[in-house]
Design goal:
single chain, about 450 residues, mainly alpha, Cytochrome Bc1 Complex, Chain C, two-stranded antiparallel sheet, 16 helices, about 5% strand, globular
């Protein structure tokens, strides 16, 4: 017996004893098929790991952070070469970086962890989009996942202000201008966000949203997302078969790999790797705290948000695009993604069978990447319509040509594979394993065989 077999059998015996004594099967997550033991199937689990690290590191930062704009003359002001009073929020951040043991590593990893969580959510989103996991019966799971992505972006937006640097303060004001221009919701959000109109009121509202309201919303949405995942199981591979069953039953789950301990340790392994890489990057490239709000000696620079909002920041630089238009276009995009399961009514999930929606996703992805880089390189520079057409137009045009070519190529090869099957009578093909002319029907021409 090999060591691997002995180890697995021993682990199963030990865990069987634990399950028998704790009734863990009643509250552990459901079993999953063996084909799902690939990182691409657990991008959502990576997001959960990133979220848990943000919760733990954020709670540690709360031990030292002071959400106050009240000025205080402390050693932090003297250390940066000024005798003027600095806001307490900035000074407490400065204290974390320079006085708390491993405080710089903690704060930097929390900041980079937020970036990583947003990036992983985008990876999870586009992976689900391309593979059609939003199709029945997982429509509501997709919609809740979209709300999770929006809430996570809100976490990043509110957390950006908390160090209370001049850069973050200016960028937050730019974001507030866009948010308050929302039709109908803008006037309602104003009093909620701005509080009494003072800087302290704004910081307090952002602090409350970042550490209490949005985490509670994330927790509730995450619970609903996992509950729906439990109901349907992991999405099967993408396929051209419109008759493929896309829901696992309890009977199917009995033949799958149990969540405890196999899947749990599988996700834990990737979670530990994530934390190790995150801490390594934070140690090698620590974050430098910019100057505080109100420092008259600070060099004025163009205000710009964090990277995940740079595309919208640059969009406003287009000639003729007002904040109202930018917010309106963003709202339309959110509505499209939210109700995508009801717009794409095809029962086939393979990317080659959804050319229009694949073209939209690829074009939007290219648009976001180009706009993010453009916004970081030339912030605040007005863009003329000819330059917009020359830069953005090819993205949609090239994607249209490439998508059409791939769809044509795969459709052609698929027709050849269908034609290779011996028909028993018009419109019906023999089963793949049946000999030619056996008369065993597989499906009509409308029901493609599994091709995932």
């Amino acid at each position: 017996m090999s060591f691997a077999n002995w180890y697995n059998r021993t682990l199963n015996k030990i865990w069987g004893f634990v399950e028998d004594r704790t009734s863990m099967r009643r509250w552990a997550l459901r079993a999953q098929p063996e084909f799902s033991f690939k990182p691409s199937y657990w991008t959502g689990g990576f997001v959960v790991n990133a979220f848990l690290y943000q919760v733990v590191s954020g709670m540690l930062l709360l031990l030292y952070y002071q959400p106050s704009t009240g000025t205080t003359l402390t050693a932090c002001g003297q250390a940066v070469g000024t005798q003027s009073a600095a806001p307490a929020a900035w000074c407490s951040t400065y204290y974390i970086v320079h006085s708390v043991p491993m405080g710089s590593l903690l704060l930097t990893s929390h900041l980079y962890g937020a970036y990583a969580m947003i990036f992983l959510m985008f990876v999870h989103f586009f992976r689900g989009y391309y593979l059609g996991v939003y199709k029945a019966p997982r429509e509501f799971s997709w919609m809740i996942g979209t709300l999770l992505l929006i809430t996570t972006l809100g976490m990043g937006f509110t957390g950006y202000l908390l160090p209370y640097t001049q850069i973050s303060y200016n960028a937050t004001n730019v974001g507030l201008v866009l948010a308050l221009r929302l039709p109908t919701f803008g006037p309602l959000l104003g009093p909620l966000i701005l509080a009494d109109g003072t800087s302290q009121g704004l910081l307090s509202r952002f602090f409350d949203a970042h550490v209490l309201l949005l985490p509670l919303a994330l927790g509730a949405l995450l619970y609903a997302h996992i509950a729906l995942f439990e109901s349907h199981g992991i999405a099967p591979p993408a396929t051209s078969d419109p008759l493929q069953r896309r829901r696992y039953t309890e009977k199917d789950s009995k033949g799958h790999v149990p969540f405890m301990p196999h899947i749990f340790w599988y996700i834990t392994k990737w979670g530990l790797l994530y934390v190790g890489v995150l801490l390594g990057i934070a140690a090698l490239w620590p974050w430098t705290l910019p100057t505080y709000v109100g420092n008259l000696a600070a060099v004025q620079s163009v205000s710009e948000p964090d990277w995940y909002f740079l595309w919208l920041f640059k969009f406003v630089d287009f000639a003729g695009v007002t904040p109202v238009i930018a917010v309106g276009a963003t709202t339309v995009l959110i509505v499209y993604v939210l109700f995508l399961p009801f717009l794409d009514r095809s029962k086939r999930t393979h990317p080659r069978d959804r050319p229009v929606f694949i073209w939209l996703a690829t074009s939007l992805l290219g648009f976001f990447i180009v706009m993010t880089v453009w916004g970081g390189e030339t912030p605040g520079v007005q863009i003329t319509p000819p330059l917009v057409a020359m830069t953005i137009g090819p993205i949609f045009a090239v994607n249209a040509v490439v998508t059409a070519l791939f769809h044509w190529r795969y459709a052609r090869s698929y027709r050849r594979r269908l034609a290779a099957r011996t028909p028993t009578f018009p419109g019906v093909y023999a089963a793949p394993d049946a000999p030619p002319g056996s008369g065993t029907p597989l499906a009509t021409t409308e029901a493609r065989p599994h091709d995932g």
